């Protein structure tokens, strides 16, 4: 794995037998879940709470509008999956995250995820609060 750049958060996932298909590799449908778990981990690390707390305590949601994944190596239960996460774009009402998943130093997948900020109680698009914008800007690693 290459050196970690500033602004990049690492999230460790324990891949288990239950995550695998008959080919003994991670079921394809689990990989977006791993990536989303890592993005939620980024929010928890930086805000002290993830999506649940954002919705309940801040009345702010971030539903996804786009997900793109490229697979480069199988994921198995043999090693921990280390997901490197960083915000790579910030719009007026949207945020993009990039996630790279590694096992034993080998890149297994890369993904780009875009979500829109909403006022949760209204499910209406809204700009992020200034403190959230400032937080993301501090950790932004443009694509």
Task: Provide the descriptors you would attach to this structure in a database record.
Thiol Ester Dehydrase, Chain A; alpha+beta; five-stranded antiparallel beta sheet; single chain; about 140 residues; elongated; 8 strands; three-stranded antiparallel beta sheet
Number of spatially distinct domains? 1
Terminal Cα span: 19 Å
Give the helices and strands as they follow along the chain.
EHHEEEEEEEH
The name of the CATH superfamily reads Hotdog Thioesterase
Number of alpha- plus pi-helical segments = 3
**What is the overall silhouette?**
elongated
* Strand content range: 25-35%
Just give the CATH class. Alpha Beta
The CATH topology label is Thiol Ester Dehydrase, Chain A
| Sheet of most strands | 5 strands, antiparallel
Number of E-type strands: 8
Mean of pLDDT: 95
Summed up, what is this model?
This protein is α+β, with helices and mostly antiparallel strands and 143 residues long.
Please give a structural write-up.
The protein has 143 residues and is α+β, with helices and mostly antiparallel strands. It has a single domain (9-139), classed as Hotdog Thioesterase (Thiol Ester Dehydrase, Chain A, Roll). 25% of the residues lie in helices and 35% in strands. The protein is built from three helices and eight strands; from the N terminus they run βααβββββββα. The protein has helices at residues 30-47, 51-58, 130-139, and strands at 9-13, 60-61, 64-71, 81-90, 94-103, 106-116, 118-119, 124-125. The strands form two sheets. Strands 1-4-5-6-3 form a five-stranded antiparallel sheet. A three-stranded antiparallel sheet has the order 2-7-8. A hairpin with a 2-residue loop joins strand 5 (94-103) and strand 6 (106-116). The model has no long low-confidence stretch (mean pLDDT 95).
């Amino acid at each position: 794995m290459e050196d970690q750049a500033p602004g990049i958060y690492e999230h460790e996932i324990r891949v288990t037998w239950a995550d695998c298909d008959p080919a003994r590799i991670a079921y394809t449908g689990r990989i977006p879940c791993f990536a989303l778990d890592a993005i939620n981990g980024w929010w928890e690390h930086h805000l002290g709470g993830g999506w649940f707390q954002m919705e309940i305590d801040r009345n702010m949601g971030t539903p996804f509008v786009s997900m793109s994944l490229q697979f480069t190596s199988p994921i198995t239960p043999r090693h921990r999956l280390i997901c490197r996460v960083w915000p790579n774009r910030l719009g007026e009402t949207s945020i993009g995250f990039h996630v790279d998943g590694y096992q034993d130093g080998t890149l297994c997948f890369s993904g780009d995820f875009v979500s829109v900020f909403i006022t949760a109680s209204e499910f209406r698009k809204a700009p992020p609060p200034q403190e959230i914008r400032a937080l993301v800007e501090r950790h932004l690693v443009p694509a």
